[in-house]
Amino acid sequence: xxxxxxxxxxxxxxxxxxxxxxxxxxxxxxxxxxxxxxxxxxxxxxxxxxxxxxxxxxxxxxxxxxxxxxxxxxxxxxxxxxxxxxxxxxxxxxxxxxxxxxxxxxxxxxxxxxxxxxxxxxxxxxxxxxxxxxxxxxxxxxxxxxxxxxxxxxxxxxxxxxxxxxxxxxxxxxxxxxxxxxxxxxxxxxxxxxxxxxxxxxxxxxxxxxxxxxxxxxxxxxxxxxxxxxxx
Length: 232
What we know:
The chain is of the alpha/beta class. It has 2 domains: 2-94 and 199-225, Periplasmic binding protein-like II (D-Maltodextrin-Binding Protein, domain 2); 95-198, D-Maltodextrin-Binding Protein, domain 2 (3-Layer(aba) Sandwich). It is built from 8 helices and 12 strands. Strand 2 (26-30) and strand 3 (37-41) form a beta hairpin. The protein is elongated and about 65 Å long. It starts with a strand and ends in a 7-residue tail after the last helix. The model has no long low-confidence stretch (mean pLDDT 92).
């Protein structure tokens, strides 16, 4: 049985159901809103597993699900290409992982400006400039590629935009779609501060056990969905 991890609630779940349904694979939730189970109508050998979007990368890596729908930001942050393969971009759930600084930093417009400010900040304050984020891997790789070294990452699992006002960070790296929360907290995105453009993606696990029957079921599913027949 192929197990597909899908977001368990909200807009992402409905968009996921709509994407599959538009391609003739009708997926729906069963039971109450508190039950995380579902079915796919008229398609043998495939079953949805309702999970939080943040759990899906972990379950793909562990091989407990064969396929999963979640944001590319979460997968790129948590996993490597040896654990998953991209099957298809789904065209919803778009958001950008960006680097933002306070509006009052009028001389900091680019990442190079941030690098210079970070060096000055350490000299003036005796510690490195702090960037609040939950995307440590992606942010570190981005800053390393840009040659920025004089900083430290501060873990933030929620309300990241408020960390500057609260005095726990000087800058942030976070996901945004409209930018409204950034503006409300007097922050602005650096002109070259786009770290990753994220969207919902259908992923295949390379670590799951793909029995012959699973591969056959996947071939039929892939034909319905119009995606690659052998992504793993």
